[in-house]
Specification:
This protein is an alpha/beta fold. The protein contains nine helices and 14 strands. Helix 5 packs across helix 6 and helix 7 packs parallel to helix 8. The radius of gyration is 20 Å and the shape is elongated. The relative contact order is 0.17. The structure holds glutamic acid.
Length: about 300
């Protein structure tokens, strides 16, 4: 099932419960939803709850009630990533059994002098040939063969993982499965055919494709949409103090999301009911309008007229 070719479109939205949805996450949810709906496909909802130290109590409930209020309709049951722990462990074990992954006892301090690149510390391979530390992370071996993919909006992307990231962590020292491994396993078991998400995750994609290759999974298509930024250029996020999306005015907030997604909704849609906004959006969805665009500021001219009071 994992590798079967299927014509049916399966997309997903996969928020981490680190806080309530903000405008940037609404935009990502809308983009993945429209991409699935416009193709008469399935849209799955997966709560990525495998990193308790980063989670905020009540965030899952807040995310779910916001998605309901905004009229999103997901296919089947809500998926909780924490429930696929056994499958994550099995994937990890298969990498270890084939010596594609290995224990690493390096602490942050041990790596303080390691080179850094845009992806963070470039692991110098210290534990590649063995390590006798009691507490270890597990790292995946990388190679110097470039990993390339054709992003649906951002064009051809390529990374030499060995040079740009080095062997990366698939199970953390604290025993938690790392994001890259969990997301790849879950996308595979759910049969996701296309991943639509923010461009801030685009530089993770080659590491995820490497994992898909090693685990024998089908590689989904990828579309990375522009990130929504504060006027100073910082990405909207919990860390940068982005406000939650409004509980009222949902139709107008959806229109704002469509504007951010370069869909140019007609002026009178600003006064329409939520269901009419969705109908227009699905019928007129043109992701190609975002071709090559990497960021949209909440202060942009297009959003200026509608955003007041929305976030
Ligand atoms: N859970 C991740 C986040 O909330 C998104 C993962 C993904 O879309 O691949 O940032």
């Amino acid at each position: 099932m994992l590798t079967s070719e299927s014509a049916a479109y399966v997309g997903r939205f996969a928020p981490s419960p680190t806080g309530p949805l903000h405008f940037g996450s609404l935009v990502a949810a809308v983009a993945s939803y429209l991409q699935a709906k416009a193709r008469a496909g399935q849209w799955l909802l997966r709560i990525e709850d495998i990193d308790p130290p980063r989670e905020q109590s009540g965030a899952t409930e807040a995310i779910l009630s916001a998605l309901e209020r905004y009229g999103f309709e997901w296919h089947g049951d809500i998926i909780y990533q924490s429930c696929s722990r056994k499958t994550h462990e099995a994937a990890l074990q298969s990498l270890l059994d084939r010596s594609l992954a290995y224990p690493c006892g390096c602490s942050r301090r041990d790596l303080a002098d390691a080179p850094r690149g845009p992806l963070g510390t470039i692991y110098p391979g210290t534990c590649r040939d063995g390590c006798d530390a009691a507490e270890t992370a597990i790292r995946l071996r990388t190679s110097d063969t470039p990993i390339s993919f054709l992003d649906g909006l951002q064009g051809l992307q390529s990374q030499d993982l060995e040079r740009e990231s080095g062997d990366f962590v698939v199970r953390r020292r604290d025993g938690l499965i790392a994001y890259h491994l969990a997301v790849v396993v879950d996308d595979a078991i759910e049969g996701i055919t296309e991943v639509v998400r923010g461009i801030d995750l685009m530089d993770s994609t080659p590491r995820q494709i490497w994992l898909q290759q090693l685990l024998g999974y089908r590689i989904p298509d990828y579309i990375h949409i522009p990130v929504i930024t504060h006027p100073n250029g910082d990405k909207l996020s919990k860390l940068t103090g982005a406000a939650g999306i409004p509980a009222n005015n949902t139709a107008r907030a959806l229109v704002a999301a469509l504007i951010a997604l370069q869909q140019e909704p007609p002026e009178d849609l600003r006064r329409a009911e939520q269901s009419e906004v969705w109908q227009w959006a699905i019928e007129n969805w043109r992701p190609e309008a975002m071709q090559g665009q990497t960021a949209v500021s909440t202060d942009s001219e297009a959003l200026a007229g509608i955003k007041n009071g929305l976030w």
